[in-house]
Amino acid sequence: MQVGLIGLKFTGKTTLHNVITGANRPTGQGGVDPHLAVGQVPDARLDRLTTMFKPKRTVYAAISWVDIPGFQGGVGADGAREAVRFLEHGRKVDAMAQVVRCFDGGYGTPDPVGEMENLALELVLADLQIVENRLERITKDKARLGKVANPLEGPLMERYRAQLEAGRPLRELTLSVDDAKLSVGYAFLTSKPMIIVLNHEEGVEPEAALLTAAGQAGAAVVSLCARMESELAGLSAEDAAEFLADLGVAEPALPSMIRAAYSALELQSFFTVGPDECRAWTVRRGSTAPVAAGVIHSDLQRGFIRAEVTAYEDLIAAGDMSAAKAANKVRLEGKAYVVQDGDILEIRFSV
Ligand SMILES: Nc1nc2c(ncn2[C@@H]2O[C@H](COP(=O)(O)OP(=O)(O)OP(=O)(O)O)[C@@H](O)[C@H]2O)c(=O)[nH]1
Ligand SMILES: [Mg+2]
After folding, report:
1. How many structural domains comprise the chain?
2. In a domain, 120, yes or no
3. Can you say whether the dihedral through the CA atoms of 146, 150, 151, 156 is positive or negative?
4. Do 107 and 28 sit in the same domain of this protein?
5. 177 CB-near residues (< 8 Å, 6+ apart)
6. pTM value surpassing 0.85
7. Residue 347's pLDDT is what?
8. Are residues 130 and 26 located together in one domain of the fold?
9. Which of these, 100, 104, 208, 301, is most buried using a 10 Å CB contact count?
10. Separation CA 344–CA 349 (nearest Å)
11. Are residues 72 and 210 in the same domain?
12. Whose CA is nearest to atom 2 of ligand 1?
């Protein structure tokens, strides 16, 4: 699962990518190649489990982040080439996070609403191009062969065209199962989940009008200061707490951004616990227990018998695993069980 950091130039994408993935690539320099790296998904529940079980190691869930070079749009061959490159990279990711410049930083008066509109329009136009091409193809085939391969496709593309011509993203449409299946192959940009990251100067809060505009542009809105987050990452836990207290900030904003992306991808975590390892694993929402077992090891899926399941909240309320057992909070679930976010699993299997 990949999240693409997208946006115009000099908005703070590389600065954020460095903090999320622990990389140290130069910022303020642009570039033309995307860069992929893995970043941990912070999880306060896993921290708590670590305190409870004192394992030898703790392993967080992880997702991949692609730092996609910024795009300025504009006219002329350079602008067009940049746009094409940007859109190609955008097609490969599963979700997008648009980083919006709300700080001056020597790059001129910020225009966050304009940036969001500019990029949204670029994505809409790219999708519209695909839809127009497809409709043209359908018309030609009909004339030549007297029929169409899939009678659902024409009406669906017409519906898409109307939505895009109204300047709205495809993700807003509710699709039937068949329509959704049909759409997969096109890798439409505006059907991918999108979160908006308002990159502010330290200590500045976004205005209400900006938050409203951002709320319309994406499924989740996070406001942070990328530069401050990157300073924080270099500090010990104690110094970081002091630094935040001085600024009057309760907690760093980066974890909520990462969690928003994780959630936009329709992912959730289940845990395994023990004296050796406490670990968060990633499954799609709606996955069954054997699928979750398969994330740990294919043998566990193949030989799946049952799962011992304890909800995180139940374990915390009980205090420890034996108290949770005594309170009948450790359930035995079979193959059809749908794993819930925060479930603590122990898989029984035989191969
Ligand atoms: N003042 C201020 N500057 C920032 C902030 N975040 C990033 N910058 C600076 O803005 C410049 C651009 O940051 P980058 O992270 O390289 O921006 P980018 O989006 O990757 O840019 P491109 O790769 O060209 O698209 C750098 O000089 C950063 O130090 C911030 O929150 N406040
Ligand atoms: Mg960059």
Report:
1. 3
2. yes
3. negative
4. yes
5. none
6. yes
7. 97
8. no
9. 100
10. 16
11. yes
12. 105
**Ligand 1 proximity of 226 Cβ (cutoff 6 Å):** yes
CA angle 241, 246, 250 (to 5 degrees): 55
The DSSP annotation for 147-182 comes to: S-S-TTHHHHHHHHHHHHHTT--GGGS---HHHHHH
Of 250, 286, 251, give the one whose Cα is nearest residue 268: 286
- The residue range of the domain holding 301 is 286-349
* First CA to last CA distance, the chain: 29
- The region of weakest confidence among 75-79, 111-115, 201-205, 291-295 is 75-79
DSSP 211-226: HHHHHHH-SEEEEE-H
Asked if residue 255 has its Cβ within 6 Å of ligand 1, the reply is: no
Average pLDDT of the chain?
Answer: 91
Comparing 198 with 28, the larger pLDDT belongs to 198
Cα 254 to middle of ligand 2, angstroms: 18
Residue 229 is assigned to a structural domain of this protein: yes
Please name which ligand lies nearest the alpha carbon of 71.
1
CA-nearest residue, atom 21 of ligand 1 = 10
d(CA 107, CA 163): 34
C-alpha to C-alpha distance for 107 and 27, rounded to whole angstroms: 14
Q: What's the CA gap between 60 and 203, in Å, rounded?
A: 29
